[in-house]
Amino acid sequence: METRANHVWVGAVTLALLAVLAAVIIWIAKLNQGHLDEFDIFFKQSVDGLSKGSAVSYAGVPAGQIKDIELWSKDPSFVRVRIAVEDKIPILQGTTATIQGSFTGVSAVQLNGGVRGAPPIAEPGPEGVPVIPTKRGGLGELLSNAPLLLDRLATLTERLTMVLSDDNQKAFKNILANTDRLTGSLADASPQVKPTLAELQATLKQATATLASFDKVAGTADQMLGQDGSSLVKQLHTTLTSAQSAADALNATLTDTRPAARQLSESTLPAAEDAIRDLRATTRALRAVTEKIDDQGAGALLGGPKLPDYKP
At what angle do helices 269-296 and 226-255 cross, to 10 degrees? Predict the structure, then answer.
């Protein structure tokens, strides 16, 4: 009987010592942890991944943990999260709380935005402790806008499908085929244009040389030409200028792939041939005038040849 009583006392003392040891450990842990300040955070979004004991950090530095999490009884659209933060953490005006999510499903509360010199958040909120305002995090913002992004993506896909329909693809194919055919026709017409352009350039060169000769003769001729000779030179200058413009237009037509080949063969080539014929006629007339001045003098341009004296 006495042996059994000793066993009871030994067990009671052992339990008492274990309780004292646990209390000492808890006291030491609280002593190392320091004083904790409590704050409420009201999230108007999903708090998936948060739970009691989840970590609370300030700018990435561990600052405390979540003490309680529940739907706010006064407005169920808000989730009230009470956190306990070490008193050495500066919870100042401008500090905001966000949910730091991850793809593993575990979330934490992230505090940021305290400004040096700002007063601390100390005014009690509706539940008796100060309230830290919230701000949507990057991942939370993305997840909340996911339905809108998916809807816009579906609309964009539908419109792309309409643009790339069978009818539109057929139209694009026809456009490319017509462009290829037009380019080929213009390339086929190029050998016909090049000889005409070369002939026109040779005619212009010959006409320019003839005009230079006429200017030289007219400058040394008798002043009886007067205003008539000057007008003729001006007219020839105008004709050559028009011919040069026609040559420039033909050059532009040859290098520009936009005009149709039919217009090139039916309109531009005949115009160039007419210009060549006019220049040749002008050159012949100018050469005849020059030769006449050389043979008969400048007076030959103002009247007919001098009749011989009549002898009865």
Answer: 150
The phi and psi torsions of 119 (rounded to 5 degrees) equal -70, 155
Give me the phi and psi of 280, to 5 degrees please.
Answer: -65, -40
CB 53 within 8 A of CB 65: yes
Q: 30 falls in which pLDDT band (50, 70, 90)?
A: low
C-alpha 162/C-alpha 287 separation (Å) is 70
**Residue 66, beta-bridge partner list:** 83
Whether 59 contacts 112, CB under 8 Å: yes
pTM exceeds cut of 0.85: no
Q: Residue written as tokens 């309109």?
A: 267
Pairing of strands 61-71, 36-43: unpaired
Q: What angle do CA 58, 63, 65 make, to 5 degrees?
A: 115
Question: Which of 232, 204, 239 is closest to 218 using CA atoms?
Answer: 232
Q: Enter the DSSP assignment of 120.
A: B
Joined together, the tokens standing for residue 31 give 């002593």
Looking at residue 73, the DSSP 8-state letter turns out to be: T
Q: What residues pair up with 112 in beta bridges, in sequence order? A: 96
The pLDDT of residue 267 is 64
For the segment 70-110, what is each residue's pLDDT rounded down to a tens digit?
Answer: 999 999 999 999 999 988 888 999 999 998 876 677 889 99
Q: What are the tokens at 144? A: 């909340």
What is the DSSP secondary-structure string of 1-19? -HHHHHHHHHHHHHHHHHH
Q: Give the distance from CA 134 to its chain's centroid.
A: 36
